[in-house]
Amino acid sequence: AKGEKKETHKANFAIDLPNAKVGEVVTRFPPEPSGYLHIGHAKAAILNEYFAHEYKGKLIIRFDDTNPSKEKVEFQDSIIEDLALLGIKGDRVTFSSDYFDQMYELALKLIKDGKAYCDDTPLLTMREERMVGDASARRERSVEENLKIFTEEMKNGTEEGLKNCLRAKIDYQNPNKALRDPVIYRCNLTPHHRTGTQWKMYPTYDFCVPVVDSIEGVTHALRTNEYRDRNPQYEWIQNSLGLRHVDIWDFGRVNFMRTLLSKRKLQWFVDKGLVGNWDDPRFPTVRGVRRRGMTVEGLRNFIISQGPSKNIINMEWSTIWAMNKKIIDPVAPRHTAVDAANAVVVSLANGPAQPEAEQKPKHKKNAEIGNKTVLFANSVLVDQADAASFLEGEEVTFMDWGNVIIDKIHKSGDVVTGIDARLHLEGDFRKTEKKVTWLANTDDKIKVQLVDFDHLITKDKLEENDNFEDFLTPETEFKSEAFADLNLKTLKHGDIIQFERKGYYVVEKPYSDSQEMVLYTIPDGKAAKK
Ligand code: ATP
Ligand code: MG
Ligand code: MG
């Protein structure tokens, strides 16, 4: 490519991890297998990988599978695949559930040390007590009583066990509410996707993470900073159990305008049938954005350019799509499409009586992309919008062909229904004002469906008290028909092209005899069309 600067996004955060020694750093990415990987997770995963790599240490991929009600093997498998797609392969893949026995023993130790108690206070009362800083009526249960409830009732998921949970006895009045005796074990009778019905109770995130981080040899736990209040709790658990200390390093969550990143909410869209599935092109999942035409390189560049920012940022989608455009533009083959709605037939009086084929480069600046067949004929199609701009007697340029003189414009009301014209190939294309796309109107052209999408929600940034269901975009999928050049027949699912003067598209359904070819619009970072 002539003089085009190739963008290099070299990761250079110029940030050190505290107490980090080259060769000894161990980080972990701990997804819960309760949904597909989304671009927020991708940020966490790439940051963990970055530090592990930078310090010549190790990365653990840990499935944080402590809530059987939400977790599935399907999600687990998809997470591994999507991480691989992003070029992330952990040195080890582990599961929180591998440590259920050890965590159980450690919970017993806390109880025996008088540092945890079983509590059957109703949920709402408990929440209220934690809010105002009141002690639970069960806080002073004896060690014996706690042991009995924990090992006989909770462990077996009895009726009495189900009423109870285990709480760390930290400080019910602490200004930091995270320290007000957090719940560390609770019952759940749903079979676990790995341990089946062996357990009837499970550690909570708050107990599991500091314990497993320590046991697994993690040196630096990267957490999004909405957990900052819970850092003292994390340390309390390690200290109280005499476990090895782990340094916490926090970073800002990434959010996107008009986008939900909560797996629970995304699951709602799937369950309601408002999207196809987790890989829907309107979803911010790794699969969704890939299907929409995001390249892995574009995604990685975006995340690395964000660096380890501590601010919770609400990103514009245009930023990430603009980065993607830089990747696809130099390599996307150029093709031609004409909107089928009101496409205008231009009859060229002196055009070739029999269609003529010529080989032309698919990309003017990149010969490596190869050639395509361009057909020239005496009947061609142009977009209604272009046709409507022509004047009788005007000389215009048909791109990659030459000049054309418009003789007669046939109209029905404001709609152009046909044009009589003639080629004027000696004409100078530098002197015409209009350069238009055209397509030979022969049986070789193919009909395709073009699909564009809008965001699923209408509000840029949902506030804490907003119910996302009140902000659903009524229509999020826009289909139109177009005629396209015959070369599209060889494209495969996922191939990215540009329709000249229209934009970038990714092939969803390839050409076949039995169904219409479908292409999705790839946003290119310019203001979204509403
Ligand atoms: P969700 O609310 O969608 O369930 P989560 O944070 O509970 O998200 P996990 O599977 O527990 O999902 O997350 C795995 C890792 O990804 C965690 O370390 C979490 O902090 C990180 N993460 C999740 N969402 C984001 C985000 N929007 N930006 C940055 N990191 C994120
Ligand atoms: Mg989580
Ligand atoms: Mg969450």
TrEMBL record:
Residues 24-329 form the Glutamyl/glutaminyl-tRNA synthetase class Ib catalytic domain. It is an enzyme of class 6 (ligase). One of its GO terms (molecular function) is glutamate-tRNA ligase activity. Its EC number is 6.1.1.17. Residues 435-507 form the tRNA synthetases class I (E and Q) anti-codon binding domain. Keywords: Aminoacyl-tRNA synthetase, ATP-binding, Cytoplasm, Ligase, Nucleotide-binding, Phosphoprotein, Protein biosynthesis. GO terms for biological process: glutamyl-tRNA aminoacylation. This is glutamate--tRNA ligase. It comes from Australozyma saopauloensis.
